[in-house]
Amino acid sequence: MVRGKTRRDPKSSPDRNRLSVYDIGVNKWSAPKTEGPSGTNAFSHTAFFTYDATNDVAILHVNKKHYVYSPEKQTWALLPNTLPGNVKWYASSGFYDEKLNAHFYFNAKDSGFTPGNMWVWRYAPALDAKKAE
To answer: Which domain holds residue 61?
Structure first.
């Protein structure tokens, strides 16, 4: 799964979906029509994807925001921020540990912001339900 957006495209709206999905079984890319906010300002130093195998969702982490993509529903949901407000988010990366059912974020805080820090987060489908209310 890949999500791309370019700032050079003047026709590109902030939430314009540019999601591409690769199907290994048929060796083919597709661009599903999705609904919901798919994230903005997702640059290589502030954003990364993780796949939550327990809940079958892909999560785009952008700065302090979590955009959850459901392949089954083909929808995006923006979850409430759960990180402290005083955290400067920069040069981030992360991974999902299926055994622990947890997302690990490393926030390097490059360019003079030291030290970096590590955050652990767990997705709960109930968050999507609350967001929809």
So the answer is: 2-132
Other CB atoms closer than 10 Å to residue 21's CB: what's the count?
16
Q: Is 41 helix (H, G, I), strand (E, B) or coil?
A: coil
Q: Name the nearest CA neighbour of 76 among 129, 37, 30, 125.
A: 37
Write the DSSP assignment of 82-105 as a string of letters.
-S-TTPPP-SEEEEEETTTTEEEE
Q: Give the separation between CA 117 and CA 2, rounded to whole angstroms.
A: 26
pLDDT tens readout for residues 106-129: 877 666 656 777 888 888 876 555
- CA-CA distance, 46 to 113, in Å (whole number)? 14
**Which residue has tokens 């590109």?**
12
Query: Residues 34, 76: contact at Cβ < 8 Å?
Result: yes
Q: 66, 22, 61: which is closest to 43 by C-alpha?
A: 61
